[in-house]
Amino acid sequence: MTTAKPQLSLYNTLTRTKAPFAPMDADNVRMYVCGPTVYDFAHIGNARPVIVFDLLFRLLRHVYGADHVTYVRNITDVDDKINARALRDFPDLPLNEAIRKVTEKTEDQFLADVKALGTLQPTHQPRATENITEMQTLISALLEKNHAYNAGGEVLFRTRSMDDYGQLSGRNLEDNLAGARVAVDEHKEDPADFVLWKLSSETEPGWDSPWGRGRPGWHIECSAMSERYLGQTFDIHGGGLDLIFPHHENEIAQSRCAHGTHAMANVWMHNGFLQVEGQKMSKSLGNFVTINELLETGTMGGRAWIGDVLRLAMLMTHYREPIDLTVKRLAEAEAKLRDWQRAARGAELAEGDEPDASVVNELADDLNFHRASVALDFIARKANRDEGNAKHCLAATLRFLGFSLDSLIDSDDGWEAPPHIANAIAARLDALNAKDFAKADTIRNELAEQGIVLMDYKDEAGQRATKWEVKR
Ligand code: AMP
Ligand code: ZN
Fold this sequence. Notes:
By secondary structure, the chain is an alpha/beta fold. It has three domains: 9-271, Rossmann fold; 274-408, Anticodon-binding domain of a subclass of class I aminoacyl-tRNA synthetases (Four Helix Bundle (Hemerythrin (Met), subunit A)), CATH 1.20.120.640; 412-470, no CATH class. The chain contains 15 helices and 14 strands. Helix 2 crosses helix 3 (95-116) and helix 4 crosses helix 6. The protein starts with 8 loop residues before the first strand and ends with a strand. It binds adenosine monophosphate and zinc ion (ZN). Zinc ion (ZN) binds next to helix 7. GO terms for molecular function: ATP binding; cysteine-tRNA ligase activity; zinc ion binding. Its cofactor is Zn(2+).
C-alpha cells in the first residue's frame, strides 16, 4: 500500500513566513548546509544543525524518494583559525604539514561524532581546499562584472554594487555603517565590503591566482561549493542563526551577482542556539562541552550519554527555538527513548517498512518534532497493549527518525543495566552494607525518577542483592 505523501511547509528566513515547500525539480531536491571549520572538536552546539538538517534530509527523502534528494554539507579546511592551531600544536612541522594534521584529525573526529548521533551521510561533503579553482572562477566573474575590486592585497566584494544587499538579515548598508565599531580599512570603498581573496605571506598557505598567491575568504567557499554540486539556484540553504549575517548574506551577494540570478536558494532555514545549564557555552566559563566529551566522559551529570539521547534531547525543542541543554533534559530524553525502544522490542523490520503517517505529517509542518513525539507516544501505548501492528509501526518510525531500536535495552535477554544504572545499584548496596540508609534512599529515589524500580532480596548465599525493572 502506498500512502499519500504529505505537503511540506517550511519557515523561510528570507520571507519571514512559513509557506508550502515546492522544489524546483521534484526529481532532485537540493539542500546545502554550512559545515564545520575543522580546527577543533565540534561542540554540542555544532551538533544542532547537524541533527536538525539530518531530520529534514530524512523527511525529504521520504517525501521525494531517497534517490531524489541531494544534500551537501561542506568541510571548511582553509581558515586562519586552522593556521593558528597548526602553529600552536605542531610548531616543529612545516606549516602545510601541520595544517593537514589538524584538519585531517578534526575532520575524522567530526565524522565519527555525527555518526554517533544517528545521522545519515550527506550526499556530498566537499572540502574547501578541493574547490579553489571554482572559487577563483567565481571571483573572476565578480571582478568582470564590477561587483568586486582589487585593493590593498585583497580582492573585495563591492557591496554598493548590489541594489538589494541585506535582504536576508534585514540590514541595509547604512545599518552596517552605524554599527561598525572597527576602524574602516583604508583600502575598502565601503566598510561593509568583504574579502573574496587575500594574499598569503610565504609561510601562510596559498594558491596561485591571477591576483597573486593567496587564499579565499570564508564566504566564497560556500558559494563555490554549492554551485558545483547544486547549481546556481537551489532549494534549501541551512545553518545556525548566527550565520545569517554576515555569512549567508554574503554568500547570497556573491552567488547572485556572479550569476545574475534572483535567488541563490529559495528557502533559508536557521536553527536556534544552544546553551548549557542556563548559560551561553564558552571556554572561559568552563561549560564548553564537545560532542565527544558528552558521549565518552562524565562532562554532563558525571556520566556519559549515548548519541541517540543527545539526538532526542536536541529534537525535543523546536529547531527554531533556543535550547537550554541540561542534565535533566538528557535524563528525560533517555527515559523517553527507553520507553519507545521497550515498546518496539521484538519488532522485525524489513528494508522498505514505512514510518507512521501521522508522525510524518507532524514533521511536515516545519519539523514539528514535539507533536510528532506525542503521536509516537500514542503508538507506543498501543504497542504496549499489543494492538494491531503498532509495535512494528513504532519500530519503523523510530528507525526513520534516526534512532536505534536497542541502544538502551538488551534485545534478547530482558534489560541489561546501562553502566550508570549498574554503578548506582552497586553504590546503593555498598551504602546499605555500610548502614548509610540516607544515601541508599537518595540513590533509590534518583533511579525512581528515571523510571527504574529496585527490589531487594537475599541471594542463595544470604547476601543482600538487588533486582531492578523499568516502570511502565
Ligand atoms: P562553526 O564551526 O562555528 O562555523 O559552526 C558550525 C555550525 O554550528 C553553524 O551552523 C553554526 O551556526 C552552528 N552553531 C555554532 N554554535 C552553536 C550553538 N551554540 N547552538 C546552535 N548552533 C550552533
Ligand atoms: Zn556557508
